[in-house]
Amino acid sequence: MEGDKKTIMEFTGERFIPGKGGAQIFYEHLHRYLFAQKLIEGKRILDLGCGEGYGSFLLAMNASLTTGLDLSKEAIQNTKIKYRKENLNFIVGSCGYIPFKNNSFDVVVSFEVIEHIEDQVGMIKEVFRILSRDGILVISSPDKRFFSEKEGILNKFHVKELYREEFVNLLKEHFSEVFLFGQDPVSGSIVWAEDERNNENTTEIFQVNLKENEKFETRRISSYELKNPVFHIAVCCKGEISSAIKMTGISFLNDESKRFLVEKDEMIRKIEELSKIVEEKNKEIFALQQFANKVKETILYKIYKEGKTFASSLISLLMYCLKAIFFLILFPFIALFWGVLILAMIIF
């Protein structure tokens, strides 16, 4: 059972924590684990880079045995407090040297971990070593081209991000089958058949591009025409690829609470409130500027300004006079000093 104690981890952005960081990042991380569940029924699972542990807990619902591994002692301490299940355990360990014997697991899951690792080849070799003969690796990675370069997002915890081609080539060097999926956050709507007589599993996708001038372009596309995902999920097999993967065209995650939309509406509401405050402050500033301009036109202000200029000139004149008086007082002493010095040099 899940523990009653709350998480003791602080959200820093390095590891995802449910309830922290907003709805979108929650959807992205949760969907990956739900996507992997079709491959883990009754199998031995390693969640490599398990972080806070919520994903390992989800996998343990269908797996025969699930092990979560993370480099952070704090993260593993948290997982042991928060997530408890008979077929679930957590250990501290490194992706570069996974502390298990060869053929220890049937499936290794590793989501948003590889970009945190410098020796990525060593990590994949270790995964291959601990997988069984027909083992499967399910791994995700952000696409450097669209995650960092296009969006301008710089994650200080990412050591080495990969382009799509680099990611695929790295995996193909070790696995005979690599099946790639794209993952993106979406904005849109879903229409589905409520009539039970419609039992065909068909999917249609409409691509729309809303522009700033309220004009839009729309077209019907297939899932293969979806381009440039921010994230890639690869299913890598030592043997033949699973039919469950081959039959997967599109996987959709729906949030019944519509929390993402609620967050966006709340953000828009706050922006509108702040805009009103800024507008009111701008009006106050403008009124003060107008008042200041009127004051500058008054006779009293002109007298004050002229008096201030006169006072400044008078002070400058007094300073020059003081300097002159000071010089006249000191001049005889300076002349006497040099006279004595020259006389002494002549005599001696």
UniProtKB/TrEMBL annotation:
Keyword Heme: no
PANTHER family membership: METHYLTRANSFERASE TYPE 11 (PTHR43861:SF6), TRANS-ACONITATE 2-METHYLTRANSFERASE-RELATED (PTHR43861)
Alphabetical UniProt keywords: Membrane, Transmembrane, Transmembrane helix
Key word Transmembrane present: yes
Pfam families associated with the record: Methyltransf_31
Residue ranges annotated for the Methyltransferase domain, each copy included: 41-148
Protein name (database record): Methyltransferase domain-containing protein
Transmembrane segments: 324-347
Source organism superkingdom: Bacteria
InterPro entries in the record: Methyltranfer_dom, SAM-dependent_MTases_sf
